Amino acid sequence: MITLAFDLYGTLLDTSSINTVLSQHLPSSSVFLSPSITTLWRQLQLEYTFRLTASSRYLPFPEVTRLSLLDALARHGCSLTPESQAAVMSAYSQLSPFPDVAAMLAKFEELKQQGGEEVQRLVFSNGAPEQLERTIRGTEQIKGWSWVSVHQMGKYKPAREVYGWLCEQVGRGKEDVVLVSGNPFDVVGAEMAGVRACWVDRGGKGWTDGLGRPTWIISSLEELGELVGKM
Ligand code: LAC
């Protein structure tokens, strides 16, 4: 049996969905900047994790998320009141799941009813433990899922060690774990560490990353239903 380890931000949850809350807290003259701030925020959040790990430093993911929000706002010439900042950060625990998460779960259920093997699944994320607890508890589709965080490693994806840590935590060999991620850097990191990865290409743009390749490419999580039996 294969264990599917799902990346959270950008794979199960849509990080761009924070735009709705952010736009409610920006001054009216800056609301039009909200989508651009949201996109830059995510880019900086990841860049901060890469930089921290490259310089052997660690800050918990909620702090990385807060600092990168401030940077993204400042680069757009904006700021938020402390109350608004707290509200936007709190909303980061309630990001919307992508619509194909429910479709995938329905597919897994259908296959189980037909006598198929139950799929072992969990979340594997940069998110800090209490952040993952809160987010998973508050997200209907993934409520009750177990999770593994990189937090105890003090290193962010795609450090090689975190993929070994994942396998250790789930008690399975590398050959029995598949990372499912929409983030190419995560996919390449897993493959380089000897864990096979499935990339979710929702945009249908095709693989472009020059540093490696996924073992599988799907255009929607729903396709995992059929794929998992062949892994
Ligand atoms: C995560 C980041 C990579 O959930 O989005 O681990």
Explain what you see.
With 231 residues, the protein is an alpha/beta fold. The chain has nine helices and eight strands. The protein has a six-stranded parallel β-sheet with strand order 5-4-1-6-7-8, sandwiched between helices. Strands 2-3 form a two-stranded antiparallel ribbon. β4, α6 and β5 form a beta-alpha-beta unit. The protein is globular, with a radius of gyration of 18 Å. It starts with a strand and ends with a helix. The structure holds lactic acid (LAC). Lactic acid binds next to loops.
Short summary of the structure?
With 231 residues, this protein is α/β, with parallel strands linked by helices.
Brief descriptors of the model:
alpha/beta, globular, two-stranded antiparallel sheet, binds lactic acid
Secondary structure layout plus pairing:
Blueprint: E1 3-6, E2 13-14, H1 19-25, H2 34-54, H3 61-75, H4 82-91, E3 96-97, H5 99-113, E4 120-125, H6 129-137, E5 146-149, H7 160-170, E6 177-181, H8 184-192, E7 196-200, E8 216-218, H9 224-227
Parallel strand pairs: 1-4, 1-6, 4-5, 6-7, 7-8
Antiparallel strand pairs: 2-3
Helix pairs in contact: 1-2, 2-3
This protein binds lactic acid.
Lactic acid is lined by residues 7-10, 125-127, 157, 183, 186.
